[in-house]
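Write out this protein's structure.
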Amino acid sequence: RVRVGALYALTQRGVHGTVSWVLLNQLKPLISVPELAPFVVRALGDMGIDQVTHKGVGPVQAQWFEAPLRSEDPRTRLEAIIGAARQGKKEIAPVIAESLGHVDPVIAHTAFRALALLGASEPCFSILDHRGAAPEQKKGASFALMRMHQSDVVEGLLQRLSQSQENLEQTYLLAALCRLVHREAPWNGDSWGTRPDTRGPYYQLETWGASERILAALQRFLQHASGDQAAWLVAEMNRNRIQSDAALDKILDLALAGEAAVGQVVSQLSGLEDIPAKAIPLLIQVAQASESTAMESAQAVESLMKVPSAQVLPAALQALTRLETESGARKAQEMARRSFLTAKQLESWYESLESWAAKEPASPSSSWAQAGLLALADRKDLSPETSQSVKNLIDVAWQDPVRRVVMMRMAASQRNHVLDARIRAALQDPNEEVSRQARQSARRLRIEALEEDTSPRVDGLSVKETLQQVVRTQGDVTLGEAVFLRASCQMCHTVSQEQDPKGPYLGNIANTYRREDLAKAILMPGDTIAQGFATHVIELDDGEEVTGFVVQESGDQVILRDVLSQAHTLDKEKILSRKVLETSMMPEGLMASFSIREMASLLDYLEQLAP
């Protein structure tokens, strides 16, 4: 340890190119000392680093790295790869390439990144051309090449693709070409925001001189590819965010002809916003087929719920019903449930939902149709006409005891509080089946009888009086969860790291705020605004004005979530002005209709969430 400290104390002077040559001859003998080798090689990588910064190369001779690059000691080899790359020693790249596919994943990863940094394509192509090279070596070579945006690299990949007959070799070449279609655009100075675009492989895509040639080659290959090859290539293109209608048409045709795996096609379709008309029959088939996997069914539902026509509703309901009975398919069940209940299309399907719900009220598919109506009734952004129509349908359905039971069961299973008052009243229903379901739903939804709460309502007290009372009042955690949902807090907040991010995360809020401060933040949200959730007002070039907080920001788009929890994706080029308000998105008066005990219960619930 003392020797290493002395070594670095000495070599710190060598980071300046003007004096590094004085130290180099003193360091060279130490490379052969096993216990010092990795530290010496690391120091060599720093020699004259100011020269490298100014687009030069370092003063260390390339051959000094040769022995360490072949060392059996993994630390020495790793430091040698890093040092050679930092010194810009492209001539030693063939020796670095020997570590591609190394059994140590850190060494293998660092090797291909170093080769990419050096722009050393020749040793990578040599490995791809060598028939005896191991698959992991070829994979590493392709990883390096796909990071070199050079015309000669593209030319070499295209030439080999045109001559290759082996699927595995074609896979390496195509993967490299897909990643080379785009490159990282120059940073324009914009902040990434608190929720940057993490899809990859670049933050902000930009085409370059070779992009059109690569795309044309990919299209040609796709035209003649087999089913499995075409499915893989389309997936790879999507992974690299390459938009291609021809690629989607190709894979759809193969799937419809039975020449491509349907699961792969459904997976690709689920990521699209606009579903092609020719894909709808395939999606309906997958949704209805008993042999479809749980994930295929869920992805089919996700895609079908983007189709404007209600003709796809029966297939979606059938898939939801089958998924409900699947064991070990929680992720797929949640995906399908969320896709169905939050779909924008439900707003124009409410009459179809009612028809299905009333058809055979006790059947599973009718139950899901009823759940769709309840989800619509819980939405805050429906048009007044649609909202009233849905309310009327539920009012009529409630008169039927069978549908009353179904609605309460589905409301409980979906944590929907639209029927809370009715469920509370149904506890005394003379129909035994109805009252039994009411008791079960009331327990699940944490509905408490009104007569048990004698505390005053918040809207009848001043802020000071409310704070004094809720701080000293003992509430109930389960009731607090119900209050959280009834106040629609979940529209803008999450309480679990597993939930998709929305507004400020509340899972650990009690670690930041004392009980009184937390109560004050709820009553007067404008006093303290969480970092990253300031209210933005954006004016677009068409005159539209959007207000909300930034959910995600990329180089060319910004996504805002408004007070109704609706996401708005805005193109930056269409933004005329953008300003930040000092007021909070969270409105005051959220607790006005709740009692002191209910608000105290909400505080108890938030406090118990904190680890």
